[in-house]
Amino acid sequence: MKKIFCKVFFCFVIIVLSSIFLMSCGKSATNPDRITDNNISENTENIEKYDGAINDGTNTVLNNDVVASVNGEELKAKDFGYYIYNNAVIQMYKEDSNTTEDVTTFDWSKTNKDGKALRDVVVENAIEDAINDVVFRQSAENSGFLISGAEKEAEELVNGSIERQGEEQFKVSANLVGVSDAETYKKIYTNISVFEGVAEDFQNNPEKYVTDISVLSNYIGNKGASVQHVLILNDTDDASQLSENVLQKAKNGEEFVELMKQYNDDTSEKESGYTFPEGEMLPSFETAAFSLKIGEISDIVESDYGFHIIKRIVGAYELQNFWRSEADVQISPNSLQMVNFYDVMDMIKEAKAKNVD
């Protein structure tokens, strides 16, 4: 089963590599609905305006004010722009999965059920995500995971891209997804690449990262999940009955990996399953996965693909939550003001205007 919502940053990687400056991050070809950033227009309502140009260094998204620290490593205001954009896209589609609104013109003054402005929800989530990525990268390295490969890849990617398209166009491409400069890009790319690498390695070598894997069951969160699953495609008359039979086998204690080998129509899934963040999978699949406890098996979940049987397993997000609980994290009491949501939106808006030109 292909994922339907790619992480915004890796869409940017594709943008840079191909030198095609897209305005959106699309769902997979298996689902034609697309996430789009259209209708580039001015929306000044509720937007705090700032003096000075977007790239003159006065804008808070580009400054070096220390917002937080992780085990002594500082995170500055400019480090959060991508995370704001990523969370803004996710939040916007939570509000309306069919929206064609541009992320920069969406009404972020709207409130959630708790009365909190959506822009503040986005910033809070962005700060947490940025901190968690740094915690994860630090802890992975301390556990023996080599991050030099990711760092080298980031360096080569940026240098090659600037050489091909020029520094100014690279900056525009980066600004489109909230990244202010090349060095910030490299850091974010490295952090996310390390997460992806550890997520896969962890399933084969959990003892490398934690002494007692059972403790991770206490660190389930709502940011992401790891699952194994069996997909029965709905292309035969007996698909529904077959899925019921497989579910019964799973509930009776048969080895789930063996059921995957025998019945799974998802040819892209490895035995280690999927590790995915909130907002990446089909809604029905994600809702079921997030409701499970570690080791628990879902009832049959239907989608346009067919019938899914899902087992939640310990993975990288539980490991991340565990590492976060062990980390020394300091966050400025003024973080919501220091990481200004509308600065990021203004930067993206200006980049879009330049990109159109």
UniProtKB/TrEMBL annotation:
Domain PpiC span(s) in chain numbering: 222-314
Name used for this protein in its record: Peptidyl-prolyl cis-trans isomerase PpiD
Keywords (A to Z) from UniProt: Isomerase, Rotamase, Signal
Any one Gene Ontology molecular-function term assigned to this protein's record: peptidyl-prolyl cis-trans isomerase activity
Pfam families: Rotamase_3
Leader sequence segment: 1-29
Species of the source: Monoglobus pectinilyticus
InterPro entries to which the protein is assigned, alphabetical: PPIase_dom_sf, PPIase_PpiC, PrsA_foldase
PANTHER family hit by this protein: PEPTIDYL-PROLYL CIS-TRANS ISOMERASE HP_0175-RELATED (PTHR47245:SF2), PEPTIDYLPROLYL ISOMERASE (PTHR47245)
